[in-house]
Amino acid sequence: NPTTLGREGSDFTAAILAYALDAREVTIWKDVPGLMNADPNRFDDCLKLDRISYHEAIELAFYGASVIHPKTIQPLQKKNIPLLVRSFYQPENKPSVISDDNSMDTKIPKIIVKENQVLLSIQSKDLSFIAEDNLTIIFDAFSQHKIHINLMQHSAVSFSICFDYQQSKLEALLQDLKTDFPFKYNTGLQLITVRHYTEDIIKKLLAGKQIFLEQKSRSTLQVLVK
Q1: Buried (b) or exposed (e) across 191-225, using 16+ Cβ within 10 A?
Q2: 112-225, CATH topology level
Q3: Which of 24, 135, 145, 216 has an alpha carbon 20 to 30 Å from 174's alpha carbon atom?
C-alpha cells in the first residue's frame, strides 16, 4: 500500500538518494542558524553546534530534538557521508556538520524540553515484585494504544512511565490496566533532558521546580518536573 515517509520525510529522501549515489555530502536547509544546543524560542543563551557525531545526532533526536530525524542519519552514517545543516535566512554562515567526528560531542551541554507529559506509576496489587510477566502486560497495553514511552523507572514494587499526553489514549490505556494494577498518574508535567550535563546547568534548569522523577547516566540527565 502507498505510504508517506512521515515527519522530516524530505530530509530522509535526500539521505536515501545520497546513499544510492555515493554523494560527497548532503545539505539541508532550515529556519534556524544550524543545530543549536537548545530551543532558541525557549532559551536566550543558546549556542550553535558547529560539529557533532552521527551518534550524538541520533541521541538528540531520540530524546526529542526536532531539527533532524534519526532516520535521516542512518543511511549517511553507513557510508560516512557528512550532513550539513544550513540556515536559509543566513546562507553565508558556516553550517553545522554531522559526521563521524565525535571530538566536540561533550563540549557543550544540550537541552531538550518536552511539554505536556504524563507520569503513570503502576504497582502490583499485593506488593509483590514487578516482574517480567507484569511488564509484558504493561508494554503490550502501551503498544496496543501506540503510546511512545519517553522515560521509565523500575523499582521492586512499582513501575513509573512518562509519555506524551493525549486524553483519548490515556483514558483507553488506564481502562486496560485497571483490572490488573493499581496506579496513580499526574499530567501537565515537563520532561527536561540534558546531554553532557554540568552541575551549573542542572541548578539553573531545576530552580523552583518540583521534581517528580529523575534519572541520570554518565552522559544524560532526565528530570520530570512541574
Answers
A1: bbbbbbbeeebbeebeeeeeebbeeeeeebbbbbb
A2: VC0802-like (3.30.2130)
A3: 216
Q: Which residues make beta-bridge pairs with 153? A: 160
Helix (H, G, I), strand (E, B) or coil at 181: coil
Measured CA to CA, the distance from residue 113 to residue 30 in angstroms comes to: 20
Domain with CATH 3.30.2130.10 in the chain: 112-225
**String of b and e for 35-72 (b: at least 16 CB within 10 Å)?**
bbbbeeeeeeebebbebbbbebbbbbbebebebbbbbb
pLDDT the model gives residue 5? 59
Q: Which residues of 17-26 are buried (b: 16+ CB within 10 A; e: fewer)?
A: ebbeeeeeeb
Decide if domain 9-105 falls under CATH 3.40.50.920: no
Residue ranges matching CATH 3.40.1160.10 in the chain: 9-105
Indicate if the alpha-carbon torsion angle 30, 31, 36, 38 is positive or negative.
negative
Inter-residue contact 48 to 95 (CB < 8 Å): no
pLDDT tens-digit series, residues 72-108: 999 999 999 999 999 999 999 999 999 999 999 999 9
